[in-house]
Amino acid sequence: MEALTPAERRGALLVALLLALGAGHDLWRASRPLPAREPPGPMAADTAVAGAGPGPPSAGGSASAETRAPTDLNRASAGELDRLPGVGPVLAARIVDYRAQHGAFRRVEELMAVRGIGPRLYARLAPRVSVGGGDRRPAPPLPTAPPLPASGAPFAPGTGRR
After folding, report:
1. Domain segments of the chain as ranges
2. Percentage of residues of the chain with pLDDT beyond 90
3. Which of 23, 38, 92, 95 could form a disulfide with 82 if both were Cys (CB 3.0 to 4.6 A apart)?
């Protein structure tokens, strides 16, 4: 086998250097986690409504993300769900499919039963979604017990025997 030419050696050295820099950057970022951001509270919504925040006020008069009403999980279409942070078209379709199979959401926490929504994404979505009326399907009936034998009650009252 022939030895590498000087140009090939430089290219291999450059690739190794880039890999080492990337690994060093990843290690540096892992050792310094990002600070936790506080969810917007009532004060953030008040300043957004008053227009005291930086930047020009919107000419269209549309509500900002902080003042927008929560998305109703039982009425939202896949397109509306797709606008939520961290939810793409595939996950929005899964939420709609889950709702079609299991009926209306009774609590926001049920969202975690949808494949692809874990605790981290749920924490981002919970303040932005709600569970309203929607088209509530009744819960499926519980399985009934088989009829009692002709002998009557399973235990005779007061004796603990049949």
Report:
1. 68-130
2. 27
3. 92
